[in-house]
Design a protein that fits this description.
By secondary structure, the chain is α+β, with helices and mostly antiparallel strands. The chain has two domains: 135 residues, no CATH class; 62 residues, no CATH class. The radius of gyration is 18 Å and the shape is globular. Helix 1 packs antiparallel against helix 2 and helix 4 packs parallel to helix 6. A five-stranded antiparallel β-sheet has the order 1-2-3-5-4. It is built from six helices and five strands, in the order ααβββαββααα.
Length: 222
Amino acid sequence: MAFRADEAAQDGYERARRILVLSPGVDADQREKADGALQDLIDTHGPVVRGYPTWHPLVPQDNPQMPVTDPSDRCGYQGLDHTIYFAHAFVSCPYGDGSKIIESVEAMEPHPCATIIAERLDVPFYNSGTTPILVRCDWHEAFPERHMVPKKLAVPLMIQQEMRMWHRAEVGERWDTMRPYLLGDPHGSRSSLFVNQETAMAMKRVYAAMVESGMFGPLRMD
């Protein structure tokens, strides 16, 4: 089935709305405010997604042999709960004041291409007993196409990430296997909610050249 970005984005919005806005823990008279806040987050930080490319600043990789696509303690975050991802931010709704999340973000190593910032939101998401925390990725460079990481950033970030494990790799993985890790989720064969077709195809060519060089070992056949 062909990848339809609009449908994928709409599916993500509906899933986020069920969790953040229509949850039984949100008072009915607060849902209009929550709905508006959710739409503002999408407008500002991009569509709702299921997972990040491994090179995205929001998922710093501690172990390149075990790639991570979801924000978690494996990326350095502490205290995440009831979390929804956007292309360039995520909202987590822990019970309590959310201090663990904010402190863990402040303790992270700086990224050369973006600044990661955590802040509390005054929005009735998920449950009245939770504190919504927005963790956002402020890229240092504006994108020509809104919310789409440009080729000149996505390609070198991918190379940098993949080069970290070349001397430990035993086999080269096929592009089809690597698409969720390199394009993010949801994705198609030639684009995703993070990169457009031109960027994705450039990434594919570069990745194929790396694999064909033999730097990762023989191509995995199964």
